[in-house]
Amino acid sequence: MPAWAYYLQKYNANDRSVMMNKHDHTSRDRRGYAGVVNVEVTRLPGIGVRKDFPVKGGRRRIGVIDHKDGTIYLIVSKADNPEATDQIPLSASEAAALANLLGAPQLIAQLRDEHREFDGVNTRQLLILDDSPYAGRPLGDTEMRSRTRCSIVAIMRGGAVIPSPGPDFMFAAGDLLVVVGTAEGLEAAAKILTDG
Question: Which residue, of 95, 142, 161, 168, has the fewest CB within 10 Å?
Answer without folding.
Answer: 168
